[in-house]
Amino acid sequence: MxxxxxxxxxxxxxxxxxxxxANHQVILLEARSxxxxxxxxxxxxxxxxxxxxxxxxxxxxxxxxxxxQKLGLRTFHYNQHNDTLVRLPDGALRxxxxxxxxxxxxxxxxxxxxxxxxxxxxxxxYLERLGERPIPFKLQxxxxxxxHPRYLSAKAAREYLCDPSAEEGDYRLxxxxx
Length: 178
What we know:
About 4% of the residues have low confidence. 9% of the residues are buried. This protein has a domain of 88 residues. Helix 4 packs across helix 5. The two termini are 30 Å apart. The chain is α+β, with helices and mostly antiparallel strands. The longest helix has 12 residues. Pfam families: Amino_oxidase. This is Putrescine oxidase.
């Protein structure tokens, strides 16, 4: 069977690999002059690779981590609790490590305490719909790691609240994500 995969980002490359394993004849079509999608490592600027796109492997529980281990790629464990900034309700900025003692009551977040998401609702709309309630420290962390809540998926954020691997930290590929 012949199959066309459009896009040579990580999803397209993974799909092509799985299809090949299933004995498909695969054509991979990419519009750019390089593969990788969001993964874009620049080696022209410095002696070390500079990541211009995807940068981290988010925990040892995801498939990319086991693939990196299988390929013998060097990783560096990065624990964002040491230097990621969080804005406190009073407006002050502190590192996650500094406010660690203030996260009492948020360590045992249960998904059942957070209502279902309406379709593709943004995190901003979801939180507005829920009204006044304390935002768990773990969710504050999630928002600080990414972007404004209007651009974040409420479904992904809700799942993250109960993901035990989220506490582990991230891994950086020392020799480049590409």
